[in-house]
Design brief:
By secondary structure, this protein is α+β, with helices and mostly antiparallel strands. The protein is 24% helix and 46% strand. The protein has 4 helices and 11 strands, in the order ααββββββααβββββ.
Length: 196
């Protein structure tokens, strides 16, 4: 076999092998991503997330450590300021919010008012758990990665960006989240997930 015939045979073999290769998976349609994510996380009833949270609002900005614990519809969020300069707690059950703020116990709107006056933020603190999981009850996926994980979700008055995921057991949970609304932004870096 001469060099020319061998070259044609090698080219034909390469073309045949390329035709047999499977194409990379296509990302799912954005409208299907949230439904699939909610279904995948439906069995996740108890979990914890710990990390850092940075809030930028009209009245200023600041960084906090956070500990979120979810047990069914009940949640407990603890926020700790650097150097022991404050510890706050918000807990709720889907119907009622209770705020433990600087030694005061406040219900519902009184806690939101405290947050607005001190931090300039009146965003829905009870929604943080949904945003942490990248599975909000409303909103529309704007972009997803090839694994079907949301990269950007937009809802009424807010937009969430997911730049990193962590593998926790068989689940892929967000490691970095940035949520922004009118006049505020929250950056969340999850250091540790615990799933029960």
């Amino acid at each position: 076999m001469n060099a020319r015939a061998f070259g044609r045979l090698a080219l034909a073999a390469a073309a045949w092998l390329a035709a047999c290769a499977t194409p990379p998976p296509r990302p799912p349609a954005p409208e299907d991503v949230l439904a699939a994510r909610r279904a995948a996380l439906a069995s996740l009833r108890q979990w914890r997330a710990e990390g850092r949270l940075a809030l930028q609002a009209a009245e200023g900005s600041g960084g906090l450590s956070f500990h979120w614990r979810q047990d069914g519809a009940r949640f407990d969020l603890q926020l700790v300021a650097p150097f022991g300069n404050g510890r706050w707690r918000v807990h709720g059950d889907g119907r009622r919010l209770v705020w433990d703020l600087d030694g005061e116990r406040l219900d519902g709107e009184a806690g939101r008012l405290w947050l607005r006056e001190r931090l300039g933020w009146d965003g829905p603190v009870e929604r943080l758990g949904e945003w942490l999981l990248a599975a909000p009850r409303d909103g529309r996926v704007q972009r997803a990665d090839r694994f079907g994980r949301p990269l950007e979700i937009a809802g009424a008055g807010w937009r969430a960006h997911y730049s990193r995921y962590l593998e926790v057991g068989r689940r892929s949970l967000p490691g970095r989240v940035e949520v922004e609304g009118e006049g505020w932004r929250i950056k969340i870096a999850v250091r540790r997930w615990t799933v029960y």
